[in-house]
Design a protein that fits this description.
With 315 residues, this protein is of the alpha+beta class. 43% of the residues lie in helices and 14% in strands. It has eleven helices and seven strands. It is elongated and about 80 Å long.
Length: 315
């Protein structure tokens, strides 16, 4: 935990049920496995995309963004908040889209009240208000993966660390904006209507990814779209509707698993196995250990013959 906010995964099921818990109606997230404007257009209406990338530690700050231009006046006519705390960037990115789509979406009474409360605030105070919102923080943390291990995110990051950051892209007031709480203002990428968004956001993402070495593949892109179950129902596609229902059921199961810490369970299983082996006496236990060592040696020899080194999982 860092300042009361835990890390959450970039996962369509996590984000879909997170916004639902916040009171948002008829919205879901879809993972995009390629930068394909045609596929993104097929998900229309697309309210925005959430992009996860490895944050370049140690990069020097510049007066201008590497792509696009800062629009310092935009925050007066849209919701933009500075990120003031670690681990909140995922939820902050999706709120940066949602709170600018009130005319198109039912964002719920609680988020509507939050937006109204912070409307006159500058970005830094909006960020503080978001970070101190018990509702938003509690819902965010309820989707964090349970872990019994010490969280090291409170220490200062170094250039050797792999840190990841969420930002949002969305068409707002006729402009394609990049919404990054670590930047001083929204970044404008030119005129853009909702219909043009799929075609215009893909080149921006491609240019951003091109800044990294060709070997860097650790990116994730989620599209915020209208609930696909509604679309399937409207056109009478029962097979599609059933697939979407099955997807939701799988997401709920995965989210339930995230809330549980299975280290204790695994420990008890191992203890039970050891007790069972010890029940046969010292000779039985020793034979069990020797058999395990022989199997490990056999895997190593097989891997060595194949030129692959030691088998995965060997000590």
């Amino acid at each position: 935990m860092s300042g009361g906010w835990n890390t959450i995964e970039s996962d369509a099921g996590v984000f879909t049920y997170l916004v639902e818990e916040l009171g948002v109606k008829d919205v879901q997230f879809e993972e995009l496995i390629s930068l394909d404007a045609k596929f993104l257009r097929q998900q229309s209406p697309v309210y925005g995309v959430i992009f996860l990338f490895r944050y370049p530690i140690g990069q020097e700050a510049t007066d201008d963004p590497l792509d696009g231009s800062f629009d310092y006046n935009a925050a007066e006519n849209m919701f933009f908040a500075a990120q003031t705390i670690q681990n909140a960037c995922g939820t902050q990115a999706l709120l940066s889209v949602l709170l600018n789509k009130e005319a198109e979406l039912d964002i719920g009474a609680q988020l509507r009240d939050f937006k109204d409360f912070t409307a006159a605030f500058p970005p830094d105070l909006r960020g503080e208000a978001l970070s101190n919102s018990e509702l938003i923080r509690d819902v965010h943390n309820s989707f964090a993966r349970s872990t019994p291990f010490i969280d090291e995110t409170q220490r200062a990051a170094t250039e050797d660390d792999d840190l990841y950051h969420f930002i949002a892209y969305s068409p707002i007031n006729g402009v394609l904006y990049e919404l990054d709480g670590l930047q001083p203002a929204p970044i404008a990428h030119g005129a853009c209507s909702h219909d043009e968004f799929p075609d215009k956001v893909i080149p921006v993402l491609q240019r951003r990814i091109a800044r990294y070495p060709a070997t860097e593949i650790r990116f994730n892109l989620l599209a915020m779209v209208r609930d696909l179950r509604l679309r399937a129902s409207e056109i009478g596609d029962e097979e599609w509707l059933e697939r979407e229902r099955a997807k939701r059921a799988a997401w709920q199961w995965e989210n339930a698993l995230r809330r549980h810490n299975f280290v204790g369970f695994a420990s008890e299983v191992l203890k039970a196995v050891v007790r069972q082996k010890l029940g046969g006496g010292e000779a039985e236990y020793q034979r069990w250990v020797e058999e395990a060592m022989k199997k490990t040696q056999a895997r190593r020899e097989t891997a060595a013959r194949k030129g692959g080194g030691e088998a995965e999982g060997d000590d």
